[in-house]
Amino acid sequence: MERIVVIGASGHAKVIIEAIESIGKYKVYGLIDSFKPIGQKVLGYEILGTEDIIPTLAKQGICKGVVAIGDNWTRYVMHTRIKEIEPDFEFITVVHPSAVISKSVRIGKGTVIMASVTINALAEIGDGCIVNTNASFGHDGVLNDFSSIAPGVTVGGNVKIDFCSAVSLGANIIQGVTVGKHSIIGAGALVLNDVNDYKLVYGVPGKEIETIKKGKKYISKS
């Protein structure tokens, strides 16, 4: 099996690690984390250092991995940083074996599809995305790069979710809706209308509560 690294060592990383193990294609060589001590272990895998060691690992033939950071903007920044220091690094796509995905779906690099996800016909999932546990994404929809769908989310057909936007736990988006870039759909919201860029939406039905800045935190831990 090919050796890879997992960038990130929090709870989200644990779920990704177990998905990787269930696939049986890759062997996790170790973890990269900017804040946790070298040598600390997560699910038996050791933290090797910060992203600055990636060029050294690449010289050893370990030049693939996945960014296991839940926050969209932070994940995007880390992807960009890794490409700057090691341009040949390859981001793998992780799809849990229990996911049900149409053969006509396109999934980008560095994206993670968790357990019990359903993605229907002709949907497009961009680079660096997360489709989390038990989420459903409808036909002909587009999830743009570095966006995420949290556990238990239902997205209807022909929905477009733009760059770096987040749909939080248990939210629902009806068919044909467009969600702009860098927007956040709050937990449990019901989205019936289009959402503009840089908006925070909450409620049933969902309403734009405020305008937010790029990179606004929406989860306490990545």
Automatic annotation (TrEMBL):
Entry superkingdom: Bacteria
Binding-site list for substrate: S10, G11, H12, G70
The protein's name in its UniProt record: Sugar O-acyltransferase, sialic acid O-acetyltransferase NeuD family
Keyword terms: Acyltransferase, Transferase
Residues marked Increases basicity of active site His (site): D140
Catalytic residue list: H139
Pfam hit, one: PglD_N
Annotated GO MF terms: acyltransferase activity
Phylogenetic placement of the source organism: Bacteria, Pseudomonadati, Bacteroidota, Flavobacteriia, Flavobacteriales
Family stated for the protein in its record: Belongs to the transferase hexapeptide repeat family.
The keyword Cytoplasm belongs to this UniProt entry's keyword annotation: no
PglD N-terminal domain segment(s): 3-79
